[in-house]
């Protein structure tokens, strides 16, 4: 059983060069009523929901653009805002260090012939790990409409139609 991705992928081939692709997206961000905001550099685009519409679980889409003779390939991942992502990474790191520390303590208790009570931390950390994962998936569900908005912004500005999602990812 494959678990759903915490950061769903986005992959799209466009018939434009890298510079024309970035120019089209930069022009889209300049429109007054644009529902998205973002930054465009030579081969990287970051798209997010405008500040007035942003919620805790609002997504961002970071794309790398690579080109060949026949066009450009946009590849990236949807994810939460960097502040939210940092919170999740910090929570996972804290739980990981808790598990490592309690594992070392449990080994010490074992070598001393004491009961390995430090392993109770693992019983607490396991559900917390699962809770973090489930909350990330819940955030994806709550932000699904905004993920579609980001995708529609890209497709509109690149004059492409939205294709059906592929198995295992958004595209």
Short key terms for the protein model shown above:
disordered C terminus, alpha+beta, 171 residues, 5-stranded antiparallel beta sheet, elongated, single chain, 22% strand
Largest sheet composition: 5 strands, antiparallel
Portion of residues in helices? 40-55%
Radius of gyration: 21 Å
Distance between the termini: 20 Å
The number of distinct helices, counting runs of at least 4 residues, comes to 4
Roughly what is the average pLDDT, rounded to an integer? 87
Beta-strand portion reads 15-25%
N-to-C order of helices and strands: EHEEEEHHH
Secondary structure class reads alpha+beta
Number of strands: 5
Shape: elongated
Strand order of the largest sheet: 1-5-4-3-2
Model regions low in confidence, pLDDT < 50 over at least 5 residues: 164-171
